[in-house]
Design a protein that fits this description.
The structure is a homodimer of 562-residue chains.
Chain A (H helix, E strand, L loop, with lengths): L32 H9 L26 H11 L4 E2 L2 H6 L6 H8 L9 E3 L4 H13 L3 E5 L19 E5 L6 E5 L4 E5 L4 H10 L2 E2 L12 H7 L6 H4 L2 H4 E8 L2 E5 L11 H5 L8 E8 L1 E2 L3 E9 L2 H13 L6 E5 L1 H10 L5 H8 L2 H7 L8 E9 L1 H17 L3 E2 L3 H9 L3 H11 L1 E11 H22 L3 E10 L3 E11 L4 H18 L18 H20 L14
Parallel strand pairs in A: 2-4, 3-4
Antiparallel strand pairs in A: 1-2, 5-6, 6-10, 7-11, 8-9, 8-10, 12-14, 12-15, 13-14, 13-17, 16-18, 17-18
């Protein structure tokens, strides 16, 4: 069908952190950053000792339990060069990239790793692998880009069976584009930049840009029910992914691309968010759009969080159809100002322009101001018209526009945040994210409750801690709230992290919000699933998984609460 | 929670046909209608003998097998006045309103009817009924408005267990409206006009207007994954229904209203389209919208089907966001012209205006012209702007606008078609509908294949037959095609109907289209489910149903192929 990609051409992130070797966060050109970190988490970057890159040789990697016979059988399917039990490959496929994952891998805490990693060339090989693994009662964990932060990828400690990490990296072609329908068939292992480049060459875009875009795959997006930064226009992956091919024991589930269907409970929606538990996604037919003539991101300021959220709600209710609606709370706004490069972006406005004076004259408290980014895409006249509709609403809610300059910077650095997290970890502070969604009427309450929960957790730790938030992904009836938190850790960073993370997740479900808007469930969010979808919901989902995978060969232990 | 509605205030359609007593189709004011029927299906309305209203007393209604003990148990839950085994109630709850249903009930063909009909007042009573029925190993078939045409409601002949028709008609309140979020909690038995009136009084609309609107319920919409005429703007019920409460044995499934969530495979999407097989829907939290300032439906003509479909596709790909995009093929266009009231609507244009002359001058063949309706909603300026975007696209595709006059008529008579079907049945012609969805690139092919299939079936019958179609419900990657077919029947109308219907359904799945876009599966479409979602899809769905309902107490025999 397509030319097989060489296994060595499959890119993985570095085993001990986010992204590729040689790229990292630095703050030499961000004079406000170090004071901000000192203020936020009490960490003095001037005196903190930076942990060096960990040594792979020091790692205790669990031995592979794969029998020679089983490995040979796998090799007979894909060729010996595409099966491996070597330690580096198995470590790379052990965890995703949550802060828990990074802490564990750096602290030599690998209780269980895959026993064998395999790189099939095509769907037929995936089918043979699945059939062989199920026949041998092995465990299969599909692996895309490895960027998951919900614990969806890791093997369960205590799993006695042989665990196969099935890496889809060689399946990365855009197979064809149905230009009349705006539908592209894409192999599941295709990573964001790769597939977008293949589409762009023919004048198309997928319009799906999650934070993980640079390292995640279309199969992973489907498996975790991902959302992208421009989902207001293009939809979440649940809207974008129309057709699917999923390899299951004995056969391929084929869901043809359909704009909509009432053929019973949606099997398509069962695969979405299934995290490998219903089979191995090999191909997704996604909606694609012609690259828009115009794409602008404008920045706005609001006097405070409540007025900003009210404006976002009013936009979602209006006739306007922006591609991005995003607002940072006052703390995330102060973070953005501190981390901007000197004399660029929003900090330039604040430092050099008349803006602070204007804000003060309006009676704004500069500690409360909230920075918003709103995007417009389409024809030149459409983008202009949408902006005028939005500008009116912003004005009515007491906000003010500050042009497209900061938006351009937002666009350029939107995929860089994970590198910052690695840098802070090197310096002694742990940070990660929790995100949720709730109806508009609940958002301010969720925000307050999460802040109170985090404060409570930090007090318990007796430690300085930071939390900030933005709202993104608007829908008619609600939106996503995205929280970033960080603290300087002590002796047991995982336990300390769990205390904060758990407090935040509990605040979500206690306040009408869901356990995750677009990161999936994995192990990280499963303890709250029952409180999210009720006992009967868990029963129905359990029945789905158990009937589809009675011997629990597919990514066992994930999603469902223990 | 709400004041209980009296059982006698629950409206049902007449037992032998669509709608309410005393309302029917007549053609005295439509001079073109009789000649059209003669031309289309060879039926002479001047000489045909109209079947009178059937006599209920002549019906052989199967005896109820409900034991006195069981009926008494049910009566102890809801009160004796809200349980009945009387024949009329059981017949009313036996079938939906497909042509097969009408033919069977009129020809005294009731092989199995519910044994007992029950009208709970609230969710707590539904729970008690469900628990009692499951304990007694009885069958539960939830009943909303009874308008289903996919065979989703009828008991399976040969079912030896006691069958309970659980009528939600007393649960019909709009409980509350979250005005900040645009979300309304509505009891599942609420019928379209009733709930829309309750919403309208407070300035809101649900925006969901299926053809069955006047007699269907919000619970039924969810259970069959319904779409409405304005779904281009408001979404299908799958988009509109955010929260749900579903009574299951031993407890209530509670899905809180969320704008989006990645909490594993969507249980919400499992309830959507489940046709009562996963429990009894008692409440749905739906998106509601403020009644728009402006709502217009404009009519357009295209020289032929291909140019019209191309224009609809171009609109869906453009920045324009109309609320309705609909185009009739040339045959449905000729039907619309024939059935218009004299000197009104589109026929007026054709009969009295310069339009036919203009079309001919453009080189159009009047036999090929296609009538389109496109709707615009929102602020006055938004509706105007959308129309200008659409007008440009129509022009580019060779079409022409003819104003809003015909659109107003479309709006007024949009819910009347089922009455016409009953009239034709009285006169000796059977008609019904089949609808589907497919990617844009496949629509013209599906249309041609369905026509060929219907022609083949009519030839086999040796009978005159008619088929016509329109496209509606546009999505980014495709649209719905809706076919209406009719023929004068002979000795075995059901067998003749099956021949035509089966040919059409087979043409759907053979040509990249689904078995149903918005009517559900029931018994009518289940034979093609495997060809639609593949064997593995059916296996997954079967596992879902069997694990959630191991003794098959909930609407057994539906959706899954035999």
């Amino acid at each position: 069908m397509t030319n097989a990609i060489d296994r060595n051409a499959v890119h993985h992130m570095k085993w001990w952190g986010w992204g590729v070797d040689g790229v990292g966060f630095h703050h030499e050109d961000k004079p406000g950053f170090a004071p901000f970190v000192k203020f936020a988490v009490g960490l003095d970057l001037g005196t903190a000792v930076r942990t060096g890159e960990p040594s792979f040789d020091d790692l205790n990697v669990p031995l592979s339990n794969a029998t020679e016979e089983f490995t040979a059988e796998l090799a007979s399917i894909v060729g010996a060069e595409n099966v491996t039990t070597d330690d580096m490959a198995r470590v790379v496929h052990t965890y995703g990239k949550s802060i828990r994952d990074l802490i564990r891998v750096r602290s030599n805490t690998i209780l269980r790793s895959p026993d064998v990693v395999i790189y099939p060339a095509d769907e037929a090989e995936v089918q043979q692998i699945v059939d062989a693994a199920v026949a041998a009662n092995a465990v299969i964990i599909p692996f895309g880009g490895g960027s998951n932060i919900a614990g969806s990828l890791e093997p369960i400690p205590g799993e006695a069976r042989t665990i196969v990490s099935l890496d889809l990296g060689r399946l990365r072609a855009v197979i064809d584009i149905d230009t009349d329908s705006g539908l592209a068939r894409i192999q599941a292992g295709s990573q964001g930049p790769d597939l977008e480049e293949q589409l762009n060459k023919q004048g198309w875009t997928i319009g799906h840009f999650p934070d993980s875009f640079t390292h995640s795959t279309v199969g992973g997006w489907v498996a975790t029910r991902s959302s992208g930064m421009q989902s207001d226009k293009y939809g979440d992956i649940a809207n974008i992914a129309r057709g699917m091919r999923v390899v299951r024991p004995g056969g391929v589930l084929v869901l043809r691309p359909l704009p909509s269907t009432s053929s019973g409970p949606s099997v398509r929606e069962m695969i979405l968010g299934s995290e490998g538990k219903l089979g191995v996604i090999t191909e997704v037919t996604v909606q694609v759009h012609r690259i828009p003539e115009k794409r602008d991101v404008y920045a706005y300021f609001f006097p405070n969080w409540k007025s900003g959220i009210a404006a976002m709600q009013a936009i979602s209710e209006s006739d306007a159809t922006p591609s991005i609606t995003r607002i940072s709370d006052s703390r995330e706004t102060s973070f953005s100002l501190a981390t901007s490069k000197n004399r660029k972006g929003v900090s330039k406005f604040m430092a050099e322009s008349a803006l602070p004076g204007i804000m003060k004259a309006k009676g704004w408290n500069l500690d409360d101001i909230c920075l918003s980014f709103i995007g417009f895409e389409g024809s030149v006249s459409h983008a202009k018209h949408q902006k005028s509709l939005v500008d009116d609403i912003v004005k009515k809610h007491g906000g003010m526009g500050v042009g497209s300059g900061p938006g351009i910077l937002y666009d350029q650095k939107k995929f860089d945040t994970p590198y910052l997290r690695d840098f802070l970890l090197d310096m002694g502070a742990a940070g990660d994210v929790s995100e949720t969604a709730a109806p508009w009427s609940k958002l301010v309450g969720v925000h307050e409750a999460v802040y109170a929960a985090a404060r409570g957790a930090y007090e318990q730790l007796g430690n300085d801690g930071w939390i900030m938030s933005h709202m993104s992904h608007s829908y008619h009836s609600g939106a996503c709230l995205y929280f970033t938190f960080a603290f300087t850790f002590g002796d047991d960073p995982i336990a300390e992290y769990n205390l904060v993370k758990n407090a935040i997740q509990q605040a979500f479900v206690d306040n009408h919000a869901t356990i995750s808007h677009h990161h999936g469930v994995g192990l990280e969010h499963s303890p709250w699933l029952t409180q999210d979808i009720s006992e009967e919901g868990v029963k129905i989902m359990t029945g789905l998984f158990e009937s589809a995978d009675p011997a629990q060969n597919f990514n066992p232990g994930k999603i469902l609460p223990k």
